[in-house]
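Bit of a strange request maybe. I'm writing a small parser for structure token strings and I need a real example to test against, not something I typed by hand. Could someone generate the tokens for this chain?
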Amino acid sequence: MAEPVGSNGQVQQRVRQIASDVLGFAALRPAQWEAAAALAAGQDCLAVLPSGAGKSAIYEIAAIALGGPAIVVSPLLALQRDQARALRARGLTAVTVNALSRRSARDEAGRLLATGGSGFVFLAPEQLARDDVRTSIARAPVRLFAVGEAHCIASWGHDFRPDYLRLGGVIGAFRERPAIAAVTATAAPPVREEIIDRLSLADPRQVIRDFDQPEIRLAVRAFHRADEKREAMLTAVREQEGSGLLYAATCVSSCTPRCPARSTSTTRRSAEAAGTASRPPRSASTGPRTWECGGSSRPACRTRAIWPPWRARWTARSPGGSWPLVPG
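Reply from user aminoacidic:
Good idea to test on real output. This should exercise your parser:
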């Protein structure tokens, strides 16, 4: 088990100091505080918190408190990239290793693990299929092992990732077992039990918070014609009061040319119905294609690449109300 940073009082003081002085947080939410302090004290932790609750801050603070290498496994490559960039901006060592990584990134991660230096290695789960990666991890003096999107380990879940089944073996192969953090935004009690069992969490601190957000509502409408769906999207944008987001699926080549999600001009007109549209230079290999419309009090329109195509859908959410959720 990871060696704690000191007594309870020392741990709390260290967590507070790291949050403010190192990461620049003005304050921590109670759930963040509880989970980070438990991990910094060397205790395993399962944190099930709503989206936007700051789950990444939990293992970042704990990893810095414990010192040494920290490994973060997550299937969200864009999130890994953003987190690593933010940590480097704070003067910390952070490297991402996934299918798109260059050899230099892999070498940097290998050196960090071999030397036991303080820093973060963000791993895509498929990397655990590589013998050399698992061997390097097992030999390294890792102080914290964090699993993002931990619900993906649930074998019956729709987000099940087979590579997550390797996590238990990776954790069991450590010469000195680190503190284990499992974080997710969705895990019913049966899934929590499966996470604890498959990751062999030892008497973990479970930090669970309420997911009720009464200001957000979802509705469902089915469409059989592309033009009807397109008109519903435009109407939703025009009629929405206040701020909001409209997510529209980007379809693959099997879709018809008239598909509203595939049409650049339609997407632009949709965005222009709410404000001025802009197209950032992002490719499909580095992240979702996104068109956004500006205006602090107007909706924002986005298209995102979603696979497989039969799971594509129009979705909309507003902080002060709702838009229809329309299956594709």
